[in-house]
What we know:
- Chain B: Keywords: Cell membrane, Membrane, Transmembrane, Transmembrane helix, Transport.
- The structure holds 2 protein chains of 2 kinds.
- By secondary structure, chain A is of the alpha+beta class.
- Chain A is built from 9 helices and 19 strands.
- Chain A has 2 domains: 4-225, P-loop containing nucleotide triphosphate hydrolases (Rossmann fold, 3-Layer(aba) Sandwich); 240-348, CATH 2.40.50.140.
- Helix content of chain A is 25%, strand content 32%.
- Chain A is elongated.
- In chain B, 76% of the residues lie in helices and 0% in strands.
- Chain B is built from 13 helices and no strands.
- The model of chain B is unreliable at 267-275 (pLDDT under 50).
- The interface between A and B is medium-sized, with 38 and 24 residues.
Amino acid sequence: MASISIRNLVKRYGNFAVIPDLNLEIADHEFVVFVGPSGCGKSTLLRIIAGLEPITAGELYIGDKRVNGIPAAQRDIAMVFQDYALYPHMRVYENMSFALELRGTPKAEIDARVKRAAALLHIEPYLDRKPKELSGGQRQRVAMGRAIVRNPKAFLFDEPLSNLDAKLRGQVRAEIKALSQELKTTMVFVTHDQIEAMTMADRIVVLQSGAVQQYDTPEAVYERPANQFVAGFIGSPAMNFFPVEWRGEAVVFSQDGARVPLGLESCGPLRQAGKGVLGIRPEHFAVAADPADGMAVMIKLVEPLGSDTLIHFDLAGASAIARVDPSLRPKVGDRVSLRPQPGKTHLFDSTDGRVLQ
Amino acid sequence: MTDAPTTDRWIRYLNLLQLALAGIIILAPTVWMVLSSLKPSFEVTAYPPTLVFTPTLENYVQLMKTTPFASYAVNSLIVTIGSTSLGLLFGIPAAFAVSWTRVSWPAILTLAARMAPGTLFLLPWYVMFRQVGMIGSYTALILSHAVITLPIVIWVLLPSFDGIPRSVYEAAQVDGCSVTRILWRIALPLVGSGIAVAAILAFVFSWNYFLFALVLSNGDSKTLIAAAFNFIGEGSTQWGALMAAATLIALPPLILAALVQRWLVSGLTLGAVKG
């Protein structure tokens, strides 16, 4: 078990810097999720930690040991791959025992550890099967089992849920979370799915273009996004954005000059900046009791989700979504009056997207 | 207007015709050879050829009596097994290295060597082997035949190694494997059928290769295919015995070719890797 420290890390492919300059400290026993869109460098970063990609510049420490240039085989980390990467010619038992065997672990101990991991993951009935005889979910468990038996310094997961169907994904997600609490080992998990990031992580690293946009707890990343990119990436459906201005002691939409019904306590940063981008999450719209207090919108599309209902509408020239109570029974063509919930709005700089404070 | 079933029927006929033509081209000489080996010697060269005759093994008996056929067969086996083993010994790690590093020029170099005419190697080898007194030795023949077997092994195995998902190699690295161990414990068991195909093809090509043995062997180390050439005399050619020899020489490659077909069909079963 160990902390992971990344200092001024640079990774280039030719002239292209996938990771221009990255610093990150992952504490011992912490469950950290790297999240970001395709090509943001999250998998590259994980592979660098694993020792599968060389570092162009910078330093990487696992525990107290500087591991630049140390091959993957000697880093004592375990990794679960997106395609599981099970050894097709070995039975499940051999897949799980292989790493221990390489380390010269006594047979009796190998047997005990494999069986303990198999019990933990409910794969005992499959120990004698080859990977091709297993379903996707079972293979996923075997891949995790192969990692668990090692008792490594850290677990690395490279989008391990992406090949599972939605139901199984939710189940395995919960199992990995429970496992992390039981094993108390440093875990780094890569995903492009922000729900996975939010539900599993102690802390989330939001990456874009190889740079850390925010590194914080899921709650903080959701409630206090550091910039417009993070605000737009975390949360589903995504946050709505509207260009706004401070005009005549009020916040107005830049597009049509209509007044935004915001409390003055939310407007401070805009008063200084003059203009910016207003961010409102779909769940942070409220239906105004008095139509005069809200912004009148016409519903374009209704998505009933059971627990709540999403309504799509145009506001100030932008498409937007609000999450409303299903008892409202909205219908396409209905007009509703919406207002942002007090204290739940976000303001971003209109040029660089950083949060306005 | 032609309807679809009629078109399908025509396509089927054309396919059959194509197969029949290919069969005639490939099988006619083989059938001719086998039938001739079973004819009485005076009928082998009869014109017009006889199609109805009383089969006899006299050509085979004559072949065994007049030539050290078994010795030649042993020579062929030593050279072929030796050169196939040599090809596998160096070709397997070479193919794996090319696949692992994704540096393909060494493989292209071996392919170029395979494409080059044998005489290109023959002359320098003859000089070199003569200088070290190795003409006629098995070593010289085995080394020269490795030029045939090595590229075959590399090029047959390269797609097999490439077919193993990279992540399987990476999982082995993370599990603690060195590159050598990855080859031994992970890659080799997964390309078993490829190795079988490579070995059989290398064997067949080496067995059938004529030129090197003709020049680099002597009376004691002559291989079957080179020895068969001796039946073609300046004055009289023993066609019956020659056909019997050719039939016997062709048997091992034919049997092995049938085996290759089975292996090729079975192919690699790596479907287990991805869900």
